[in-house]
Amino acid sequence: MTKNISRVKAVRPGEAPYTLIVTWTDKRRTTIDMTGVVARSERFTALREPDAFNDVEVITHGWGIGWGCGLDYAAQSLDRLAREQEPMTGDDFARWQNGLALSNQETADVLGVTLSTVKNYRRKKGALPAVVTIACSALAEDRTAFFAHFRPRHAGRPRVKAAG
Q1: Which residues pair with 21 in a beta bridge?
Q2: Distance CA 117, CA 72 (A)
Q3: Is the pLDDT of residue 113 over 90?
C-alpha cells in the first residue's frame, strides 16, 4: 500500500520552545513539538539554542525543512512526528479497532485491559491516555508486533471435553 506523502508548504517557529507550526500541501496545519528530537538526538544538539531552532525554512520544494546551521528534517519524518503527537479519541480508537478487525474482547486481550475498559475507551470524547495511543499506533504500524500479541477469540462458549 503506497501512502501519499504530503509536502511542507510553510513552516515557522511555534510559541512554545522547540515547536513548529507546519502548513502542509494537503491543507493541514499542525503544531509539532520537536523537544524529544532536540533533547535526545546528538545530531540536533545545535538546535538547543532557541535562535538556531527558530531559523527554520522549507527546503527541497517541500520535501523537508532545514535550519541555518545546515541541519534538515524530511517531510515524511516530520509528518510521522505530527501524527504520533495527535491525541486519540474514542472515535479514533473505534476506527483503529475496526481497521484491525478486532472484537472488543480481542482488543482487550491485545492491550492487556478489561473488556469494560475497551468499551469506555470507545465512548470517550476527549483524549485517551497517551500509553493507549502509543500502543495502538505501534500495533497499526508494525504487523509483526500486532501478530505477536493477537489471539483470536471465537464466539460462543468453549467446548467441554468429554470425560474419558
Answers
A1: 12, 31
A2: 42
A3: yes
Cβ-contact 107, 97 below 8 angstroms: yes
β-pair type (64-67, 56-59): antiparallel
Structural domain including 19 reads 8-85
DSSP sequence for 11-22: EEE-SSTTEEEE
Average the pLDDT over 23-30 and give the result: 96
pTM for the full predicted model: 0.76
Whether the Cβ atoms of residue 140 and residue 149 lie closer than 8 Å to each other: no
Q: Is residue 162 part of a domain?
A: no
Residue 16 shares a structural domain with residue 62:
yes
For the chain, how far is it from start to end, CA to CA, in angstroms? 51
Q: Residue 2: inside a domain, yes or no?
A: no
Grid cell of 31 as nine digits: 503544531
How many C-beta atoms lie closer than 10 Å to residue 107's C-beta? 25
Residue 88: closest CA among 52, 132, 22, 48: 132
* pLDDT tens-place string over residues 27-58: 999 999 999 999 999 999 999 999 999 999 99
Of the candidates 157, 139, 156, 159, which has an alpha carbon nearest to the alpha carbon of residue 147?
Answer: 139
Judged against a pLDDT cut of 80, whether residue 163 lies above it is answered with no
